[in-house]
Amino acid sequence: MNGNTVSMTVSDVINAHFAALTRAERQLAETLLDNYPVSGLGSITTVAENAGVSTPTVARMVQKLGFRGFPDFQARLHQELEATISNPIAKHDRWAASAPGTHTLNRFADAVMGNMRQTLSQIEPAEFDTAAALVADLKRKVYLVGGRITRSLADYLFTHLQVIRTGVTQIAANPSSWPHYVLDMRQGDVLILFDIRRYEQEMETLARFARDRGVEIVLFTDQWGSPVAKSSSKVFRARIEVPSAWDSSVMLLFLVEALIEAVQSSNWDQTRDRMKTLEGLFDSTRIFRKPV
């Protein structure tokens, strides 16, 4: 596989080649993506039977995707699966084993710049604009939720959206209370959801409930893709790996801040009025220091 393909996930490679596949290969591709990556981890015979295609079809398609053969294809899937379930200790050990002798700042800068290039290369501006239009639509209520680590991103986005528009709700951290929020969701509302590895099971349940009520789900996830993607209208995958035991939120925050700008610009007159009102409220309090 070439360098660009190696930096992509197997699902990225399948999607990139989908238009060039035969009818039987497309049937196989759809089966693999439907329960990705688990659907590709059986024997070549099992994979073929589950997709309703022949074993030679599986062999031809993986070679068409750029793999040397089915074992090479499956090895990549195993690597991805291992990456998505890695705990902080395992991630640290993997990075430490091959870390160059440069300063931490330089290693981080190189990784983040690489993440920036790869993330932006896989995001369609039109898809981003469509998601921003959904969030900006005042006829729709907007709900936000994040996981153990990504909750801070949901909170950051909520704080800004609450200034920009009405009808914004941040879902509480306790999953036992989530059905109460679902009660108020209506068809056409928007759920912005953050979920990165190791993908929290409650997120998938919440997304399924919301989808069944006709809610548009905008998912921010990592390069491998949360299982919530199956229920989502829009999916934005950010590169998160850096030389650390922890995943990086830099690219996710970049996308969040770009979304804030897009939404506020689309409703600027109302946003400006709300900002003026809020600044007046701040001026009547002692929250911020005032010039002498």
Automatic annotation (TrEMBL):
Q: What is this protein called?
A: MurR/RpiR family transcriptional regulator
Question: Which residues does the UniProt record annotate as the domain HTH rpiR-type?
Answer: 8-84
Listed Pfam families: HTH_6, SIS
Which GO terms label this protein's molecular function in UniProt?
carbohydrate derivative binding; DNA binding; DNA-binding transcription factor activity
For this UniProt record, give its keywords in alphabetical order, as a comma-separated list.
Answer: DNA-binding, Transcription, Transcription regulation
SUPFAM superfamilies tied to this protein: Homeodomain-like, SIS domain
Q: Does the keyword Transcription regulation apply?
A: yes
Q: Which InterPro entries match?
A: Homeodomain-like_sf (IPR009057), HTH_RpiR (IPR000281), RpiR-like (IPR047640), RpiR-like_SIS (IPR035472), SIS_dom (IPR001347), SIS_dom_sf (IPR046348), WH-like_DNA-bd_sf (IPR036388)
**What taxonomic ancestry is recorded?**
Bacteria, Pseudomonadati, Pseudomonadota, Alphaproteobacteria, Hyphomicrobiales
Gene Ontology biological process terms in this record:
carbohydrate derivative metabolic process
